[in-house]
Amino acid sequence: MTLRIVGVILLGLFSFSSQAQHFIKGRVKEAQSPQRPLAGASIQLTGTTQGTVSNDEGYFELQSTAPATSITVSHVGYQTQRISLTGNSAPIEINLVAANAQGLKEVTVTSRYYKPYHLNTVSSALRLQTPLINLSQNIQEISAEVIYDQGSFNMTDGITRNVSGVIRQEVSNNLGPYMFMRGGQISTLRNGIDLTPIYRGPAPEDAAIIDRVEFMKGPSLFMNNIGDPAGTFNVLTKQPTGTPQYSATAMLGSWNLYRLAADVDGVLDAQKKFQYRLNVMGMTSQSFVKYDFNRRLLIAPVLKYQISDRTSLTAEYNYQQFSYALFSPIVMSPKGYATLPRNFTIHEPTLKPYHVRDHTAFLTFTHGFSKNWSLTARGALMQNDYEGIYMWVTGVNSANPNLLLRNPKYDLARTQVYSQQAFINGKIRTTGLTQQILAGVDVNQKRFRADSYVTYDTYTDAAGKTQPTYYPLTIDAPEYGVEIPNYHTPGGLAKGNTKQSIDYYSVYALDELTFCKEKLRLTLGGRFTSVNTHNNVSAVLTSSKDQLFTPRVGLSYSIQPTWSVYALYDQTLIPQAGILATGEAIRPLEGINREIGMKKDWLDGRWNTTLSVYHIHRSNIVATDPNNALYRLQVGKSHSKGIELDVVGEVLSGLNAVINYAYNDSKIEADVNPQLIGARTPMYVKHVQNTWLNYQLPGSKLSAFSVSAGYQYQGGRGERYATATPHSNPDYFRLDGGIGWHRKHLKVNLLVNNILNKKLIATPWFRSGLYYWVPQAPLNARLSIHYVL
Q: 498-515 and 433-454 as β-strands: parallel, antiparallel, unpaired?
């Protein structure tokens, strides 16, 4: 009620005159299944920023102050339509055709070169019903088409190149994406649910199940306020469409890469009330690194019950199984970065491989009370188990720096996340004012149990002290084959050295008020969060309990129908465990984001530019008390500020582009170690610039062919950890290219990565006299073949 009163007061302040209103109503359905409504379809008045999103029943309603001539309707996985308006006030029935449907002539795609690189609406998983250009936040969408064109097979495989300023920490690619942006590590959502674990993970999503990926820059109160203020990314998985579709994708590549995926989409009954989708994938590969290999299996069934036009229930399960040799391809040398051969490893082939089992399940209920009000309830669980042994070197060998002293480390871990959410979307219209309301509750329980970094291979020296057993390796002439003893924690996880939990619940409300002839949008929101943490790490017990309210204020204004500016203020928090020497509990890390930006759609929305300027402040950063390692000090502060630019879409006929640039200035303002004040934050990169171009060749003889080219550049790179004495790191530049061919049912794509065969490294850092880094792949190729029945 308070938000509505505020909206009415603001309405009076702007004192605009009442004008005749024109309403456009209708419903969006699946063309091949006319009884199936399409939720989340984007409907826009052509050539304007005015638009909306269809609700769970497929209904939409648009309000215009002037007569409109046409609307543009789009949805991920369906062909975009432009529909002429006759002036008749009767509801419009719109039937969208699946993107791979054949033989339906009633729909004309806007361009024969069209590829869905630019998605002009967010998914329903993000709970919002506003077109992207009108949102007071920078949200970037990556379509499955882009992922295919770039030859990526999961979230750790180059997908970050499509969003400005996003980089990855590549220490353990099999255990999680570990993405950084705006000076911090961003949190993880899948289908709009918080699945960010306490420690490592979640397991990288495979391209076989990805429908789209969404990056929300800065805090997003409408999703959660747990996590770094840098932002969040959401992976939307493939769902049943109600239309029988069958496809298979095969990939062959360097180092004996063989991959096969199948996607089966169909119905179980004539009324199409029971719909299903099944994705399966198997992959095996070796590596440019000695003795490394990777085996993967994915099974992902989805079952949807369309109870009525207004109500549905969807159950989804994802199972991933990994087996790989190297926990991480990290190498180290006293001589400097990139001073070892690319295939060098500290691994021993006699070690048993790492084994990972990952289970994720979702249950989603949606119900539309009316055309304007709907309810969504979701529950999810994730469990990830992994076990393995890896070799590690903790510092330089002072007696002989070129002789690495390796010792095996053992890991046994189980990560669990249970998440529940329910929210209501609604719309209220009064004269000259529209309110889009979102309110809900999020509940989450995170668990982590492990026996981590165990030094199990030891001996007792002459003084009676326990010492690690070392297996020397000469970096100039390495020799492998020594037998490493195996290990398993006696008693399993119950006897591990780590047990942690985080539990939180959160309630929130958000109101977007639209007025001034649909030009001005004011967003007001607030979220209350209560968080409890408990930690038992090596028999040291800590806990915390925090309650915090975080506000959100956003403003978006349409300068022209396809040009908007916005401003945003939002907050977030990260739970932290531990106690001060005074006995007081640790406060959560608090983050504040202030941001302004500009968005512009070009050529009827075929491509878009987004420019944003941000300033993020983090406080209550924890450091170890130098007087007693069991206690913490809460003195840390940092800031991040920068500029980001994203260009996405069909910029010219047949030329689809993803171009982005980010400048970031991220520093430590306060720390228990005065030498770190003014130092760069972990994983700092000053300049990130990426370009990807895909061109469909013109002419009847060449129209089946396309060519691609792109590069990734990172300049002014920092290190994995903050350091008072930074070490010079080489810039990163990788050039890729390829060629594609397609017919009605078949697509073939050949990609060549690192064409210049540059010696590249990632995630560098210096510690204890050694330079550590992750080597990147040399020149390599991938051939993908996609067939649709």
A: antiparallel
Q: Residue 773 to residues 103, 347, 409, 430, 760: CA-CA distances in angstroms?
A: 53, 15, 19, 60, 10
Sign of the CA dihedral with 39 first, then 519, 83, and 144 last: negative
pLDDT value of position 431: 85
User: How far apart, in whole angstroms, are the C-alpha atoms of residue 595 and residue 688?
Assistant: 19
Structure confidence at residue 626 (pLDDT): 65
Contact (CB, 8 A) for 225 and 572: yes
- Taking the C-alpha atoms of residue 694 and residue 620, their distance in angstroms, rounded to an integer, is 45
Yes or no: say if 334 and 778 are a contact pair by the CB < 8 Å rule: no
DSSP string, 383-452: EEEEEEEEEE--S--TT-TTEEEEEEEEEEEEEEEEEEEEEEEEEEEETTEEEEEEEEEEEEEEEEEEEE
Q: Using an 8 Å Cβ cutoff, are 122 and 79 in contact? A: no
CB 624 within 8 A of CB 633: yes
- Measure the N-to-C terminal CA separation of the chain; round to a whole number of Å: 53
Nearest CA-CA partner of 233 in 266, 256, 198, 202: 202
Q: Which two tokens stand for residue 785?
A: 């073949």
Asked if 769 and 396 touch (Cβ cutoff 8 Å), the reply is yes
Note the pLDDT of residue 8: 40
What does the alpha-carbon distance between residue 74 and residue 80 come to, in Å, rounded to a whole number?
A: 5
DSSP letters along 600-664, please? Answer: EEETTTTEEEEEEEEEEEEEEEEEE-TT-TTSEEEEEEEEEEEEEEEEEEEEETTEEEEEEEEEE
Q: Residue 209's Cα: distance from chain center in Å?
A: 14
Q: In the beta sheet, which residues pair with residue 360?
A: 318, 382
Question: What pTM does this model have?
Answer: 0.86
Tell me how far apart the alpha carbons of residues 194 and 222 are, in angstroms, rounded to a whole number. 12
The pLDDT averaged over each successive group of 10 residues in the chain (789 residues) is: 41 38 77 70 73 74 70 76 75 79 38 64 82 91 92 92 94 85 92 88 91 93 86 94 92 97 95 95 97 97 94 97 93 96 96 95 95 94 95 94 96 96 93 92 95 93 94 96 94 91 94 91 95 86 86 95 94 77 76 96 89 95 69 82 96 94 95 88 95 90 91 95 89 97 92 97 94 96 95
Amino acid in the structure at residue 153: F
The label of the residue with tokens 């769970």 reads 56
> In what helix (H) or strand (E) does residue 13 lie, and over which residues does it extend?
helix 2-14
Question: Which helix (H) or strand (E) is 149 found in, with range?
Answer: helix 144-149
Helix (H) or strand (E) holding 3: helix 2-14
- Its sign, for the CA torsion 699, 702, 703, 706, is negative
CA-nearest of 759, 770, 758 to 720 is 770
The C-alpha atoms of residue 786 and residue 249 are separated, in whole angstroms, by 4
* Residue 625 CA neighbour count, 13 Å, CB half: 15
CB-based contacts of 533: which residues, under 8 Å, 6+ apart?
Answer: 500, 501, 502, 503, 542, 543, 544, 545, 575, 576, 577
Q: How far apart are CA 166 and CA 172, in angstroms?
A: 17
What is the predicted pLDDT for the residue at 61? 75
pLDDT of 152 = 94
CB 327 within 8 A of CB 413: no
231 Ramachandran zone, left/alpha/beta (phi>0; psi -120 to 50): left
* Pairwise CA distance, residues 253 & 738, whole Å: 13
Q: 693 in helix, strand or coil?
A: strand
Cβ atoms of 25 and 16 within 8 Å: the answer is: no
462: buried, middle or exposed (CB in 10 Å: 19+, 13-18, 0-12)? exposed
